[in-house]
Amino acid sequence: MKPLLKLLFICLTCITLFGCAHPITMNPDLASVPAKGSPLIDKQVGFHISDASKALEVTTPGGGGDKVRYFPYRDMEPGIYKALTEVFRGVSKVKDPKDLESLRTSGISLLIVPEITTTSASPSPFTWPPTQFTVTLACSVTDALGKPVRSFSVTGSGKAEFDEFKSNFSLAAVRAANDALSKLVTALGEAPELRK
Amino acid sequence: MTKISRAAWLIAMLAASLFATGCAGPAPNYAPSIDNVEALKKSGITAPNVGAVTVSADLPGGKSLSLRANTMVSPVGATFGDYIATALRQELELAKLLNSQSGLEISGALLRNNIDAGGISTNEGQIEARFVVKRDGQVRFDKVKRIEHKWESSFAGAVAIPLAANNYPVMVQKLIGSLVTDPEFIQSLRN
């Protein structure tokens, strides 16, 4: 009995102290996605995020040897939608980007497909929430015939120290998401190819 | 206390702390469902205003939700009724269909707000709310909507508690989804 109890005790200690993948969210604060400040581009655009991407959960480092896990596409989708509505007259979600006929009948002249990559880190040996987080949004833009128009990439970064994140463990991720979306609005607004 | 009972007690304490500990604080920001937004855009409704979603003082889970040994509160306003009203505003705003000056108003009352975060393999939550649409004070829609949501969870509180918190916005998305896909609700917002 005694060896069994010892083994259980060691196992529980290990589970408590090491190797957890803590769930966080990247849900951006939509109020922080800024207006472009100039007139909207008079175009109907579509954006596509596949169901598989939305279901993708990624795991990246946190502090103390722990990890964090989250759904970048699911969490960023409303922010990307909001960013596009700040730049273009009309925005629609596109289920099938290869269905060019559907794009044409919907009046969509540009199709935007985002790709999201993230990094996280924390120098703390005792707390697991990341203190540094980056979100890179790489977008490919094609016209309604599938011809490439432009591709660009923006990276947002977010930092949060212990005093700030103790009531919101996702804070660095949320700040990075907000920053990336703000930069996305700027990048879209400054791309002359999107106005042609 | 014998050696074995002391070890058992230590294990029980460790297991209890592992089960109960985790994060506390506000629920995550609401993330509007783009499917709900697209449904609203295609509905042909007149842009309404969103009033209050009230919460009675004695409603369990109205002001705070217990997630094992932790407490989650709304990050906006004072109750989860404020969270739901804000969520509905955000979805209408993204669809460019929110008009704070409109005589058409959606309001509501939160009737149930619950998360069971104590399960070791799955957890679940339920929200029930009455939604009312009025035009210039006259009721055009009055219905109770109820959703249930389940998710895989964990024995460890450090995983189960944030998972429960992260699923609350998904529950609210489902609640609003059940409303904006109701033909009677849509009809009540048309001229």
Radius of gyration of chain A over all CA atoms, rounded? 21 Å
Q: What class do helices, strands and sheet pairing of chain B give?
A: alpha/beta
Mean pLDDT of chain A, as a whole number?
Answer: 89
Name the structural class of chain A: alpha/beta
Estimate the strand proportion of chain B: 25-35%
What's the number of helices of chain B?
5
Order of helices and strands of chain B, N to C?
HEHEEEHEEEHH
Quaternary organisation of the protein chains: heterodimer
- Helix-residue proportion of chain A: 25-40%
Described by strand count, sense and barrel closure, the largest sheet of chain A is:
5 strands, mixed
- Greatest interface (CB-CB under 8 A), with counts per chain: A-B, 36 and 35 residues
Properties at a glance:
heterodimer; A: 196 residues; alpha/beta; Rossmann fold; 3-stranded mixed sheet; 6 helices; B: 191 residues; 4-stranded mixed sheet; 31% strand; elongated
Quick summary of this structure?
The complex is a heterodimer of chains A (about 200) and B (about 190). Chain A is of the alpha/beta class and about 200 residues long.
Structural overview:
The complex is a heterodimer of chains A (196) and B (191). In chain A, helix 3 runs parallel beside helix 6. Chain A has 196 residues and is of the alpha/beta class. Chain A is built from six helices and eight strands. Chain A has a single domain, classed as 3-Layer(aba) Sandwich (Rossmann fold). The radius of gyration of chain A is 21 Å and the shape is elongated. The model of chain B has no long low-confidence stretch (mean pLDDT 90). By secondary structure, chain B is of the alpha/beta class. Helices cover 37% and strands 31% of the residues of chain B. In chain B, strand 3 and strand 4 form a beta hairpin. Chain B has a four-stranded mixed sheet. Chain B has a three-stranded mixed sheet with strand order 1-4-3, with helices on one face. Classes of the chains: A alpha/beta (196), B alpha/beta (191).
